[in-house]
Amino acid sequence: MDQNRWLMAKEGLPFFIPMALLTVILGILGWRAWMALGILLSLFIAYFFRNPRREIPNLQNVILSPADGRVVHVGECEESRFLNGKALKISIFMSLFDVHLNRAPVSGTILAENYIPGRFLAANVEKSSLLNEQNAMVLETEDRYKILLVQIAGFVARRIVCYAKAGDTLRKGQIFGLIRFGSRVDLYLPPEVKPIVRVGQHLKGGESIIGYRV
User: Fold this and answer.
1) Gap between the terminal Cα atoms of the chain
2) Distance CA 103, CA 214 (A)
3) Per-residue pLDDT in tens (0 to 9) along the chain, 214 residues
4) Are strands 134-140 and 108-116 parallel, antiparallel or unpaired?
5) What is the pTM of this model?
6) Full 3-state SS string of the chain
Protein backbone atom coordinates (compact mmCIF):
# COMPACT_ATOMS: atom_id res chain seq x y z
CA MET A 1 0.00 0.00 0.00
CA ASP A 2 1.39 3.41 -1.03
CA GLN A 3 0.78 5.50 2.08
CA ASN A 4 1.27 8.72 0.10
CA ARG A 5 -2.06 8.15 -1.71
CA TRP A 6 -4.31 7.47 1.28
CA LEU A 7 -6.12 9.92 3.56
CA MET A 8 -5.45 7.72 6.60
CA ALA A 9 -2.46 5.60 7.60
CA LYS A 10 -3.26 1.90 7.23
CA GLU A 11 -2.39 1.35 10.91
CA GLY A 12 -5.49 3.35 11.78
CA LEU A 13 -7.91 1.10 9.91
CA PRO A 14 -8.05 -1.68 12.59
CA PHE A 15 -9.18 1.00 15.05
CA PHE A 16 -11.41 3.08 12.77
CA ILE A 17 -13.42 0.38 11.00
CA PRO A 18 -14.64 -1.51 14.15
CA MET A 19 -15.47 1.77 15.89
CA ALA A 20 -17.39 3.07 12.87
CA LEU A 21 -19.33 -0.21 12.56
CA LEU A 22 -20.12 -0.21 16.27
CA THR A 23 -21.36 3.37 16.00
CA VAL A 24 -23.71 2.41 13.16
CA ILE A 25 -25.08 -0.52 15.20
CA LEU A 26 -25.64 1.74 18.21
CA GLY A 27 -27.54 4.14 15.98
CA ILE A 28 -29.72 1.34 14.61
CA LEU A 29 -30.50 0.24 18.18
CA GLY A 30 -31.49 3.79 19.04
CA TRP A 31 -28.82 4.28 21.71
CA ARG A 32 -28.18 7.91 20.82
CA ALA A 33 -25.83 8.83 23.66
CA TRP A 34 -23.53 5.86 22.96
CA MET A 35 -23.77 6.56 19.23
CA ALA A 36 -22.63 10.14 19.84
CA LEU A 37 -19.65 8.85 21.82
CA GLY A 38 -18.85 6.41 19.00
CA ILE A 39 -18.93 9.25 16.47
CA LEU A 40 -16.51 11.29 18.57
CA LEU A 41 -14.12 8.35 18.98
CA SER A 42 -14.30 7.54 15.26
CA LEU A 43 -13.51 11.16 14.39
CA PHE A 44 -10.57 11.21 16.81
CA ILE A 45 -9.11 8.01 15.32
CA ALA A 46 -9.48 9.42 11.79
CA TYR A 47 -7.87 12.68 12.93
CA PHE A 48 -4.95 11.01 14.68
CA PHE A 49 -4.09 8.73 11.76
CA ARG A 50 -4.76 11.40 9.12
CA ASN A 51 -2.50 11.68 6.09
CA PRO A 52 -2.85 15.22 4.70
CA ARG A 53 -1.56 15.99 1.24
CA ARG A 54 1.78 17.76 1.26
CA GLU A 55 3.51 19.92 -1.36
CA ILE A 56 7.05 18.52 -1.52
CA PRO A 57 9.52 21.34 -2.41
CA ASN A 58 11.23 20.65 -5.73
CA LEU A 59 14.52 22.30 -4.78
CA GLN A 60 18.11 21.11 -4.84
CA ASN A 61 20.27 20.74 -1.72
CA VAL A 62 17.38 21.18 0.72
CA ILE A 63 16.67 18.96 3.71
CA LEU A 64 13.03 18.53 4.65
CA SER A 65 11.50 17.94 8.03
CA PRO A 66 10.92 14.19 8.56
CA ALA A 67 7.98 14.86 10.90
CA ASP A 68 5.26 17.24 11.96
CA GLY A 69 5.88 18.81 15.33
CA ARG A 70 7.82 21.31 17.41
CA VAL A 71 11.60 21.70 17.25
CA VAL A 72 13.02 20.94 20.70
CA HIS A 73 16.75 20.88 19.90
CA VAL A 74 19.16 22.32 17.33
CA GLY A 75 22.90 21.98 17.86
CA GLU A 76 26.13 20.16 17.12
CA CYS A 77 26.96 16.88 18.84
CA GLU A 78 29.19 13.82 18.59
CA GLU A 79 27.28 10.94 16.99
CA SER A 80 29.24 7.80 17.88
CA ARG A 81 26.67 5.04 17.35
CA PHE A 82 26.22 5.16 13.58
CA LEU A 83 27.99 8.11 11.91
CA ASN A 84 31.11 8.11 14.11
CA GLY A 85 31.76 11.82 14.02
CA LYS A 86 30.44 15.31 14.57
CA ALA A 87 26.90 16.01 13.44
CA LEU A 88 24.22 18.67 13.47
CA LYS A 89 21.32 17.32 15.52
CA ILE A 90 17.75 18.55 15.01
CA SER A 91 15.03 17.04 17.20
CA ILE A 92 11.29 17.29 16.54
CA PHE A 93 8.64 16.46 19.15
CA MET A 94 5.28 15.16 17.88
CA SER A 95 2.41 15.83 20.26
CA LEU A 96 -0.86 13.92 20.38
CA PHE A 97 -2.37 16.42 17.93
CA ASP A 98 0.37 16.33 15.27
CA VAL A 99 0.39 14.16 12.14
CA HIS A 100 2.40 11.09 13.12
CA LEU A 101 3.53 9.85 9.71
CA ASN A 102 7.26 10.21 9.03
CA ARG A 103 8.75 11.27 5.69
CA ALA A 104 12.18 11.00 4.06
CA PRO A 105 14.12 14.29 4.47
CA VAL A 106 16.15 13.61 1.30
CA SER A 107 16.14 11.13 -1.56
CA GLY A 108 18.48 8.22 -1.07
CA THR A 109 19.15 4.58 -0.26
CA ILE A 110 18.85 3.08 3.21
CA LEU A 111 22.25 1.70 4.17
CA ALA A 112 21.19 0.31 7.53
CA GLU A 113 18.16 0.07 9.80
CA ASN A 114 18.43 -0.85 13.48
CA TYR A 115 15.65 -1.27 16.05
CA ILE A 116 16.77 -0.58 19.64
CA PRO A 117 14.51 -1.53 22.58
CA GLY A 118 14.41 0.86 25.51
CA ARG A 119 12.35 2.91 27.94
CA PHE A 120 9.36 5.20 27.39
CA LEU A 121 10.39 8.53 28.89
CA ALA A 122 8.64 11.73 27.83
CA ALA A 123 9.82 12.35 24.26
CA ASN A 124 10.31 16.09 24.68
CA VAL A 125 13.25 15.64 27.09
CA GLU A 126 16.77 15.27 25.70
CA LYS A 127 17.72 12.00 27.45
CA SER A 128 14.97 10.18 25.57
CA SER A 129 17.32 10.28 22.54
CA LEU A 130 19.54 7.67 24.21
CA LEU A 131 17.26 5.80 26.62
CA ASN A 132 13.94 5.35 24.81
CA GLU A 133 12.83 2.62 22.41
CA GLN A 134 13.87 3.72 18.94
CA ASN A 135 14.45 2.80 15.32
CA ALA A 136 17.53 4.20 13.58
CA MET A 137 17.99 4.50 9.82
CA VAL A 138 21.08 5.61 7.88
CA LEU A 139 20.19 7.19 4.55
CA GLU A 140 22.71 7.92 1.76
CA THR A 141 22.09 10.15 -1.25
CA GLU A 142 23.45 9.54 -4.75
CA ASP A 143 26.47 11.77 -4.03
CA ARG A 144 27.41 9.77 -0.87
CA TYR A 145 25.86 12.23 1.54
CA LYS A 146 24.84 10.38 4.73
CA ILE A 147 22.28 11.30 7.36
CA LEU A 148 20.93 9.45 10.39
CA LEU A 149 17.23 9.51 11.20
CA VAL A 150 15.95 8.09 14.50
CA GLN A 151 12.29 7.43 15.35
CA ILE A 152 11.88 7.56 19.14
CA ALA A 153 8.91 6.31 21.17
CA GLY A 154 7.56 8.57 23.92
CA PHE A 155 5.74 8.21 27.23
CA VAL A 156 2.43 7.23 25.57
CA ALA A 157 3.72 5.84 22.28
CA ARG A 158 4.22 2.09 22.39
CA ARG A 159 4.83 1.20 18.78
CA ILE A 160 7.28 2.43 16.17
CA VAL A 161 6.43 1.52 12.58
CA CYS A 162 8.96 1.61 9.75
CA TYR A 163 7.91 0.32 6.32
CA ALA A 164 11.38 0.80 4.80
CA LYS A 165 14.26 -1.66 5.13
CA ALA A 166 17.98 -1.66 4.38
CA GLY A 167 18.51 -1.54 0.63
CA ASP A 168 15.28 0.33 -0.11
CA THR A 169 15.36 3.64 -1.98
CA LEU A 170 13.24 6.54 -0.76
CA ARG A 171 12.33 9.70 -2.60
CA LYS A 172 12.31 13.04 -0.84
CA GLY A 173 9.08 13.51 1.11
CA GLN A 174 8.05 9.86 0.83
CA ILE A 175 6.27 8.35 3.84
CA PHE A 176 8.38 5.59 5.42
CA GLY A 177 6.75 5.02 8.82
CA LEU A 178 4.95 6.44 11.83
CA ILE A 179 4.95 6.46 15.64
CA ARG A 180 1.75 6.18 17.61
CA PHE A 181 0.89 9.04 19.99
CA GLY A 182 3.41 11.46 21.57
CA SER A 183 6.87 10.75 20.15
CA ARG A 184 10.03 12.25 18.65
CA VAL A 185 12.29 12.16 15.59
CA ASP A 186 16.01 13.01 15.79
CA LEU A 187 17.86 13.93 12.60
CA TYR A 188 21.68 13.88 12.50
CA LEU A 189 23.21 15.81 9.60
CA PRO A 190 26.78 16.62 8.55
CA PRO A 191 28.00 19.67 10.53
CA GLU A 192 28.39 21.76 7.37
CA VAL A 193 24.61 21.81 6.87
CA LYS A 194 23.11 25.28 7.40
CA PRO A 195 19.99 24.98 9.60
CA ILE A 196 17.16 27.49 9.17
CA VAL A 197 14.93 26.32 12.04
CA ARG A 198 14.89 27.33 15.70
CA VAL A 199 13.76 25.74 18.94
CA GLY A 200 10.02 26.19 19.40
CA GLN A 201 9.25 26.37 15.69
CA HIS A 202 6.46 24.11 14.37
CA LEU A 203 7.21 22.10 11.22
CA LYS A 204 5.29 20.11 8.63
CA GLY A 205 6.79 16.77 7.60
CA GLY A 206 7.83 16.58 3.95
CA GLU A 207 7.04 20.26 3.40
CA SER A 208 9.04 22.43 5.81
CA ILE A 209 12.70 23.01 4.89
CA ILE A 210 14.95 22.59 7.94
CA GLY A 211 18.34 23.24 6.31
CA TYR A 212 20.50 23.55 3.23
CA ARG A 213 23.52 21.59 2.10
CA VAL A 214 26.50 23.88 1.50
Assistant:
1) 36
2) 22
3) 455 566 778 877 888 899 999 999 999 999 999 999 999 999 988 888 888 889 999 888 899 999 999 999 999 999 888 888 999 999 999 888 898 899 999 999 999 998 877 655 554 555 555 667 889 999 998 888 899 999 988 665 557 888 889 999 999 999 999 887 668 899 999 998 999 999 999 999 999 999 998 7
4) antiparallel
5) 0.82
6) CCHHHCCECHHHHHHHHHHHHHHHHHHHCCCHHHHHHHHHHHHHHHHHCECCCCCCCCCCCEEECCCCEEEEEEEEEEECCCCCEEEEEEEEEECCCCCCEEECCCCEEEEEEEEECCECCCCCCCCHHHHECEEEEEEECCCCCEEEEEEEECCCCCCEEECCCCCCEECCCCEEEEECCCEEEEEEECCCCEECCCCCCEECCCCCEEEECC
Rounded to an integer, what distance in angstroms lies between the CA atom of residue 88 and that of residue 96? 26
Q: Report, as residue numbers or ranges, the catalytic residues.
A: 183
Look at residues 144, 57, 64, 69 and name the one whose alpha carbon lies nearest to residue 100. Answer: 69
* Rama region for 181: left / alpha / beta (φ>0; ψ in -120 to 50; rest): left
Q: What whole-number distance in Å separates Cα of residue 213 and Cα of residue 97?
A: 31
